[in-house]
């Protein structure tokens, strides 16, 4: 029976390492993965600090690994395969999955379909047949890690807004998801990309990932209206999860344009829809992270085709056994931290 040293939530705001036993033989539809590379996400901080999930929850939903064993019914992958798992698991056969909306799978929706336990030496995946994809030999773990979540979410922020070639796109906040939205806007055909950020390392990374102009959050609305001849942008992405950035994203969106909200408003029980400047004839879209085997393969194709390289997001490297200390570092957003690679 493999025992995994795994990071778990121990109370509101706290995590610790503990030993979790996993079965030699996974159950039907499951796969047991031996982690080779993992990381921490902004959603983890929301789960630990704000959400009422009970102590003992195994943390982590972004990881690469090697299949240790599969349960009955899993034919897509076998022991020894190097795989990437989506941060949300899916069944592949419910109505939503059949319509391509694997992120809102109806089978694994209680209480949610988030993957748990990826910040550990081993983790168990439900819906393994459709929630994972084999990684091509030509791609390193580090190149693929963000396919699990933030690349898919960041790209989806642009895709859900139905970008047209040449669109002017503003992206509020250049944390890991915002930076992926910037990279996505470039890869998907934006004409001009305006990033909103003030932390120097994130400003530099935004330019590296495709931002043409970076404006300070303090006067972002005025600056963006000036840059667009007072018309506003075609697409404004909210990638922070704050009321003020949501309002500002609405304010800079042109008539007929789209506000695309992917920030996690974990600390805010409600979000007010601003009417100043008028919300009439704008479109508002939001999305969970798109997942499923085909989605993972498409994103890896963008990476292997040289269209996007997100490896610069890995700013720090630690051991999986040091995950609690990594939470402290990640939470402080100091020292230029964007994503922390966690290895066994
Ligand atoms: Zn995440
Ligand atoms: Zn499903």
Overall CATH class of the largest domain: Alpha Beta
Flag low-confidence runs: none
Q: What is the total tally of β strands?
A: 15
CATH architecture of the largest domain: Alpha-Beta Complex
What is the CA–CA distance across the termini? Answer: 18 Å
Keywords:
344 residues; 25% strand; 15 strands; 26% helix; binds zinc ion; Rossmann fold; 6-stranded parallel sheet; 5-stranded antiparallel sheet; 11 helices; alpha/beta; Quinone Oxidoreductase, Chain A, domain 1; single chain
Question: Your description of this structure?
Answer:
- This protein is an alpha/beta fold.
- The protein has 11 helices and 15 strands.
- It has 2 domains: 3-149 and 290-343, Quinone Oxidoreductase, Chain A, domain 1 (Alpha-Beta Complex), CATH 3.90.180.10; 151-286, NAD(P)-binding Rossmann-like Domain (Rossmann fold, 3-Layer(aba) Sandwich).
- It has helices spanning 42-49, 95-98, 128-131, 141-144, 150-159, 176-187, 200-209, 220-227, 243-251, 293-304, 323-332, and strands at residues 3-11, 14-21, 31-38, 63-70, 82-85, 122-125, 132-134, 168-172, 192-196, 213-215, 233-238, 253-261, 283-286, 314-319, 339-343.
- The strands form 4 sheets. The chain has a 6-stranded parallel β-sheet with strand order 10-9-8-11-12-13, with helices on both faces. It has a 5-stranded antiparallel β-sheet with strand order 6-3-4-5-7.
- The radius of gyration is 20 Å and the shape is globular.
- It starts with a strand and ends with a strand.
- Bound molecules: zinc ion (2 copies).
């Amino acid at each position: 029976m493999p025992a995994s040293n795994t990071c778990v939530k121990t109370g509101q705001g706290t995590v610790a390492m503990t030993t979790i036993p996993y079965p030699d033989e996974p159950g039907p539809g499951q796969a047991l993965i031996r982690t080779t590379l993992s990381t921490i996400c902004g959603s983890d901080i929301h789960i630990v600090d704000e959400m009422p999930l009970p102590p003992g929850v195994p943390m982590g939903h972004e990881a690469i690994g090697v299949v240790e064993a599969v349960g009955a019914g899993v034919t897509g992958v076998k022991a020894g395969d190097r795989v990437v798992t989506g941060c949300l698991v899916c069944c592949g056969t419910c109505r939503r999955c059949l319509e391509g909306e694997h992120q809102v799978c109806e089978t694994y929706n209680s209480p949610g379909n988030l993957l748990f336990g990826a910040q550990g030496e081993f983790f168990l995946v439900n819906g393994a047949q459709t929630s994972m994809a084999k990684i091509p030999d030509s791609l390193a773990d580090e190149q693929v890690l963000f396919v699990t979540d933030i690349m898919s979410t960041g790209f989806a922020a642009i895709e859900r807004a139905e970008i047209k070639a040449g669109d002017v796109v503003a992206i509020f906040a250049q944390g890991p998801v915002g930076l992926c939205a910037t990279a996505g806007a470039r890869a998907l055909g934006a004409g001009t990309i305006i990033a909103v950020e003030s932390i120097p390392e994130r400003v530099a990374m935004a330019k590296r990932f495709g931002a043409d102009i970076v404006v300070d959050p303090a006067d972002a609305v005025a600056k963006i209206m000036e840059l667009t001849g007072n018309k506003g942008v075609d697409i404004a992405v909210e990638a922070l999860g704050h009321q003020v950035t949501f309002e500002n994203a609405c304010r800079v969106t042109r008539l007929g344009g789209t506000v695309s909200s992917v920030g996690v408003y974990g600390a805010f029980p409600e979000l007010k829809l601003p009417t100043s400047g008028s919300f009439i004839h704008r479109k508002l879209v939001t999305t969970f992270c798109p997942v499923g085997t085909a989605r993972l393969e498409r994103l890896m194709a963008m990476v292997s085709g040289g269209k996007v390289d997100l490896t610069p997001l890995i700013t720090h490297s630690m051991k999986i056994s040091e995950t609690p200390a990594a939470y402290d570092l990640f939470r402080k957003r100091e020292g230029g931290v964007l994503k922390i690679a966690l290895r066994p």
